[in-house]
Design brief:
This protein is α/β, with parallel strands linked by helices. It has a single domain, classed as 2-Layer Sandwich (Transcription Regulator spoIIAA). It is about 40% helix and about 35% strand. The chain has four helices and seven strands. It has a seven-stranded mixed β-sheet with strand order 1-2-3-4-5-6-7, sandwiched between helices. Strand 4, helix 1 and strand 5 form a beta-alpha-beta unit. The longest helix has 17 residues. It is globular and about 35 Å long. About 25% of the residues are buried.
Length: about 140
């Protein structure tokens, strides 16, 4: 099972990864290595802490990211509450990870046409600029 611990800064360990909430609507993650089904379950638990009425931005620091296992991809497709996700913004992802996540995005859109979109940028600053622009567009 995973080793979820919260530290004083509000950062939550999910296996080798970290996740933390940036109010009002960002779940920031730092991915280090491969992602398992257990990690996905713990990520979904973190998403459940957000108020229901708010669209959530998942901000992924993917510079140290490995690949999600097949079981993790299945858990994401089935369990990610896409109706609550404004966007998933990854920065620093490898070409291989971007390709795989783009295919996952297409699969989610087949199953759930109103799915949140996956966005890939090079830097955290670009990711935050995307979030600010998207918030303004939604206002």
């Amino acid at each position: 099972m995973g080793s979820t611990d919260d530290d004083a800064s509000g950062r939550r360990s999910i296996g080798p990864h970290l996740a933390w909430v940036e109010p009002p609507d960002v779940l920031h993650t730092r991915i280090d290595g491969d992602i398992t089904r257990e990690h996905v379950k713990e990520l979904l638990d973190a998403l459940a802490t957000f108020p229901r009425a708010r669209g959530i931005y998942i901000l992924r620091d993917a510079r140290g990211s490995g690949m999600p296992t097949r079981e993790a991809r299945e858990a994401l497709v089935k369990g990610l509450p896409l109706d609550r996700i404004a966007a998933v913004i990854s920065y620093g992802a490898s070409f291989q990870a971007r390709t795989l996540l783009t295919m996952l995005d297409h699969a989610m859109r087949v199953l759930r046409p109103r799915a949140a979109r996956f966005v890939f940028v090079e830097s955290e600053a670009e990711a935050r600029a995307f979030i600010a622009a998207d918030r303004a567009r939604r206002a």
